[in-house]
Amino acid sequence: MSDPRATPNRRRLMLRMALSTAAGVILLVLLARAIDLRVLAHTLGQASAGPLIGALVALALDFFLRAVRFWLMLEIVVARRLPMLPSVAPFVASFGMSDILPLRMGDGLRVLWFSRRFDLPAGAVVGAMIVERVLDVISLLVVGYVAFAWVGSAGSAGLGRGIRLAAAIGIAAALAVLFMPALATRLALPLLERSPRPLARTASGLVATIAGAIRQIGTGSRLFALFGLSVFLWMLEAGVMWGAWVGLGGSPADLAPPAFAFTFATLGTLVPSLPGHFGAFEFAGVQAFAYAGVDRSFATAVILVAHLILWAPTALFAVLWLLVDGSVAGRTRREPKDTALQGQPVR
Fold first, then answer.
1. Alpha helices in the chain (DSSP H)
2. Does the keyword Chloroplast apply (predicted)?
């Protein structure tokens, strides 16, 4: 017998996918109407291979170090050694899956794979991912704000005020997440534990595990070191935009416009769009370039090339990894089980 809840859930999923697709297409159409397609084609035809290869190298180093950062956070959470190299491929593949499939399904794959492969509580993996996203938001906004200040006031004053306000709100909200363990312990857990429903008791255990993971990672000098690494990672990823900028004829000395456009384009991916964030990334990035005084047609060429470099390698890697590794459903060899979350970091 089919579950009566399946049809409404399927309809909601289809509606969200349809709205995201429509939003992405609309943004691409609006962008196409504002540029000269002949200039765009000519610019793309003048691409130089050297800077683009450099951009690919920067992206590879970026994702390897991101995988190392996530592995370090998991070791802190579970207080035991975990093999690092086997964790790199599924970490990168999770990003590729989110770039191919809608609704960030790669995040679910990452939680499933790491929890099964290393016998980790799912809440520990989720907690590490939450801290990872908080660090990414704060460091991306820092890099973007520095680039914004470097760009100067070529654009409208209203947009400049909006960017400053958004940066302040984003950093404050991200920092607030690090205080979630105290709030969860004092508010959410007592309510869930008093509930007679089994689902609530299961949820209380998950909340406690996530809160414990965030508490262990987000303390003192450890968090500061992870933040420094995160800033470096976003500088590497902004280097992909700079490589596209130089490869298409932009001045190598103009670092601020591509860095600012990269930040704005990345934040634009928060808007629903096509799989791989096509549409939102391009539209937001071109607006940032225009704010910096860059021609929109040239900016569109840079954004398209940078987006393809950011998207295609991880998407292709995810497909190949899933074809080669049949262990997503839990058929992998497991590490020795240790589900207890200890309070001390790995030495």
1. 6-33, 37-45, 49-78, 85-100, 105-117, 122-151, 157-177, 180-183, 189-194, 198-217, 220-247, 256-268, 280-291, 296-324
2. no
Q: Which amino acid is at 148?
A: F
Same domain? For 44 and 159 the reply is yes
Q: Are 57 and 139 in contact (CB under 8 A)?
A: no
Nearest to 43 by CA among 301, 251, 253: 301
What is the three-state SS of 250-295?
Answer: CCCCCCHHHHHHHHHHHHHCCCCCCHHHCCHHHHHHHHHHHHCCCC
Q: Do 143 and 263 meet the contact criterion of CB atoms below 8 Å apart?
A: yes
Q: How far apart are CA 305 and CA 327, in angstroms?
A: 33
Burial class (CB within 10 angstroms; exposed 0-12, middle 13-18, buried 19+) of 9: exposed
Single-letter amino acid code for the residue at 38: R
Least confident among 115-119, 156-160, 231-235, 278-282: 156-160
Domain shared by 157 and 255, yes or no: yes
Closest-CA residue to 172 (of 202, 137, 217):
137
Q: 306, 316, 218, 228: which is closest to 269 by C-alpha?
A: 306
> Positive or negative CA dihedral for 282, 288, 291, 293?
negative
**Number of domains making up the chain:** 2
Amino acid at 107: D
pTM of structure: 0.81
CA distances from 249 to 53, 65, 253, 303 (A): 15, 29, 12, 13
Q: Taking residues 329-337, what's their average pLDDT? A: 47
Place of tokens 């995040």: 107
pLDDT computed for residue 90 by the predictor? 93
Report the alpha-carbon distance of residue 98 to residue 281 in Å, rounded: 15
DSSP 340: -
> Do residues 236 and 208 both lie within one domain?
no
Residues 284 and 162 in one domain: yes
Residues 128 and 245 in one domain: yes
